[in-house]
Specification:
This protein is of the alpha+beta class and 404 residues long. The chain contains 17 helices and 12 strands.
Length: 404
Amino acid sequence: MPDSPMTVALDAEEFKQDRYGFIEHLRAQSFYARTPDGGTIFYNQEDVAEIFKCRDFRFYFEGIDETKSPYLKKAIDHELLNMHGVSHDRLSRLVKIALRDRIVDGMRQSIEAISRDLTAAFPNTGEVEFCADFADPLPSRVLGPMFDVPYVETEGLNDWIKVGGRKLDALQTGVGIEKVEEANRRIHTYLRDLLSERRENPGEDLFSELIQAEIDGDRMSEDEIVYLSAELASAGVDTTRTQLPLILLALLQHPDELEKLRAEPGLALRAVDEGMRFAPLPWAIPHQATGELEYKGLKFRKGDVAYALVPGANRDPSAVKDPQNFNITREGRSRNFSFGAGMHACPGAQLARMEMSVALHDLVSEFSTIRLLERPDWEPGHEGRGLRTLKLHVERGAEHRRPQ
């Protein structure tokens, strides 16, 4: 074991200037690095996978001040992502019963129709702003079939989710906390009212399946259904909204791969997986040691923090052939940690992958030309992680041209 790992802050300028080059520099020194306050950073797949198993570590939100809003802290504590051990195992099994293939596949037709409606609004030839014109409305409209409610109702729900999803930032900084709490209260009230209705008249939607999921007589409580549904909706909307533009940008910056997909749109799901490996949304996922332990010669005390650096794991040269290359036809499925892994793999991953693959399939099938108009505009402070705008020039293929 190298005895001189580097010490580096996770917001260091070196990451902003050349994220992957700097990660490889860290990797060359040791299999781990340290943060200035004594945290441990892991970036190899083997180590990140071990952290995500959550046997000796558990997911951890840093810097939360629950006195700012006990209501938001309760909501976070009830999310599947934050649970550990027996309580997590129980709820996770119930969720898997609800998220059966029949339900997810049954939503495909609705998602395909939503995607077609959005691309139909694009000009035959002209400019589109992909984030606002497609990536934002696609997942918000999927809330309709997810809860089996009219789209007009999901518009308000989507607005609340946009604001309410900032629970962590609000509890850490206090910024906008009143609006975030109000949005969460609105989401939870809406879902409790819907729950009362669906108990009497269950449907074929995901929400109804969560209500009815049962193992040996055990079902979710009202709080569990409400908080979990809000978590799934938020994760499904925000992940797709933010990750899809990153995948499309990777394709546009690798025109040979875009042409592969255009020639064979059935590769769309593989393009999603490779895009999430190559251009992941998550950064460093913090976990806490649940007790004293030793891992690869490193000693941890209870409460010590270990960070799973997702971009590093996704491009680990010991686990991925040519990891710096973007290749949608690479052998096997592109393993990535963008949806987590192990105990805390995202329960909505299957649905989000389907949404994004449907979108890519439609885009390359419908448009003979898709190209960048200008350099993408990144979210402030999140360069390389989230796009604010992605302006494109599109030209519809002759067989798909619409009357204007």
